[in-house]
Every structure is written in C-alpha cells, then in structure tokens.
C-alpha cells in the first residue's frame, strides 16, 4: 500500500467514526431490520448520533421505537443490518456496549423493598464498581437526580416521579458515554416533567442522550434533533425548526376588496396552492396554502397595492412539530396498510 493509499484509508476510517461536524459518532445504525415472522417492526432504518447531542426518537405507538432501543441496548438481536454504540458493535461486542450505555426503560424495574442507597449500591456491585467508587458514584447521582432527601427511604414509599429519578440515577451510576431513555416522562405530572426536562438538558453537557417518546411538546422542548419513525421506517429527521419548515405553508391575510376579485387575484399568484375566504363587513379573511419552500407574501402585498385594496394583516402561520408529525406518520401508515386493513 502506498503512502497516499494509507492516507486515504485512514481518512475513510475517520469518517466512519465521526459525524458531519467532526465529532465522534456515539450511535451508528445502518439498514437495521427486525422481523417477527412476516412483519417488520423495524424496516431498514439508518441514522447516526454525534457526541453531546440530545436526539428525540419520535413515533406513534407500535412504530418500532422500543424495538430499536432494545437492539441498541443488546436486549434483542436484529434480523439484519448493523449498529454500534460508542464504537462497539452491538452484535459482536455487546458487553462493551453495555458498559458504555445507561438505559432507562419505559417501566423502571426497581426492587421496591430496598432503600434507595441500598439499591444503588447493589446496582454498583453488579457493574463491577469497588466500594470507594460506589460511595462516590452514589453521592454524584443522588445530587444530580435530586435524591438527597430520599436516599435512605424505601423505594415503595416514593412517588412515580421519584422512582423515575432512581431509575435515572441507576443509569448514570457508572458514568456512561451514552444515555438511552425510553419514555422518560411518561406518567409524570407537569412539574416533574419540567424538572426531568431540565435534568436531561443538564446531562447533555457530559453525555450523549437518545430519548424515545410520543409526547411531542417534550421532544420539541428538550431535543436539538428529532428522528421520526412510523411503520418501522424513518420518515423524517432534523431539528424541530427544520421539520416545522417542511410543513405545507399557510398564510393569514385580511383584505378589503371585492370578494371574487380578491380570491382570484391571490389564487393566481405563483406558489399559492389554495385560498379559502370568509367575508365580514367588506373585509375578506383569507387562509392561503402555499407550496413548500415558497413565501409569496411580497407578491401578495404588491398585488393588493396595485389594486388599491386595503390590507390590515398578512402573516405566516408557523406550523408545530405536532402538525408535521401527524402529516408524515399518517401518510406513511396509509401507504403501508394491507388490503385487509383497507377493506375493514
């Protein structure tokens, strides 16, 4: 192998281990498939997550979120494809993967008859931590998860929110590089949800966070990037702002002028897909659907000005992540319905 080939090989190897920003890839999934008989719960998905990211994994119930997480955490083998966590293959190096991840499942499996400190000490022993390491680690996670006042209480006396904190403390005990959280706010009250959201954002300073949920506002408020899965396939990926931009555009306008003339004028403008209008005392309240990537507001303003009509409102209605989620998942599920499901 020549010197130039050595450089090319090293560069290619580096690209496999790093993302677009040059940061290390903490999670890498390629063409992952998990089939149960003839049904594919996960159907050829691929994605990467860089070091320090908080990524939301969003989808309706039965979309394949939990199955994907169980593969990444080595609880379940895949049918085909490849996946690695912190540089370790989940199929051939599963013990190394388990040492690098902290996993909080949807239903936190706690021994409720133990006290919190006792339980965390037991879990630390299972992870191979020596007594001085366990003492230090328990203090660290108790402070981080606000367990100080409850550290010597029996777990069965704790609220659901506090039990979630104990489960998260357990996941953080060995200071993992990657945190995988499956529905971390399910069943919590609004105050507990806000506290958990703040904690996750704090954890991202030291850990990469992969968070599965079907609660859209939480993903939008917490995550820097979102991956949406439906029917076992990834249907969208990007920041919440980027995904909102992909919603079919909508403008709101109020124009004083002849109803038929206003409707025809606006409908003829490039980039306008449809116009609905409600007339009220000489004003036309318009909802204007636009093509994705088009912003015809300037053209609308000029057309109204040229006709000497009055304009008292023209604004873009910003879509929510919920709208995008409903649009994309509904389309995907419609396309993958079986003939029997269609007939029923």
Short descriptors:
elongated; disordered C terminus; 344 residues; 39% helix; 14 strands; Rossmann fold; 13 helices; single chain; 6-stranded mixed beta sheet; 4-stranded antiparallel beta sheet; 2 domains; Alpha-Beta Plaits; disordered N terminus; alpha/beta
Explain this structure to me?
The protein is an alpha/beta fold. The chain folds into two domains: about 220 residues, Rossmann fold (3-Layer(aba) Sandwich), CATH 3.40.50; about 70 residues, Alpha-Beta Plaits (2-Layer Sandwich). Helix content is about 40%, strand content about 30%. It contains 13 helices and 14 strands. The strands form three sheets. The chain has a six-stranded mixed beta sheet with strand order 6-7-8-3-9-10, sandwiched between helices. The N terminus and C terminus are likely disordered.
Percent of residues in beta strands? 25-35%
At CATH's second level, what is the architecture of the largest domain? Answer: 3-Layer(aba) Sandwich
Tell me, what's the shape? elongated
Low-confidence stretches: 3-16, 338-344
* Average pLDDT metric: 86
Neighbour order of strands in the largest sheet = 6-7-8-3-9-10
For this structure, what is the CATH homologous superfamily of the largest domain?
Answer: P-loop containing nucleotide triphosphate hydrolases
For the terminal residues, how far apart are their CA atoms? 62 Å
Total count of helical runs of at least 4 residues: 13
CATH class of the largest domain: Alpha Beta
Helix and strand run:
HEEEHEEHEHHHEHEHEEHEHEEHEHH
Count of individual beta strands: 14
Largest sheet: 6 strands, mixed
CATH structural fold name of the largest domain: Rossmann fold
| Overall structural domain count | 2
Report the C-alpha radius of gyration, rounded: 26 Å
Helix content: 25-40%
Quickly give the structural class.
alpha/beta
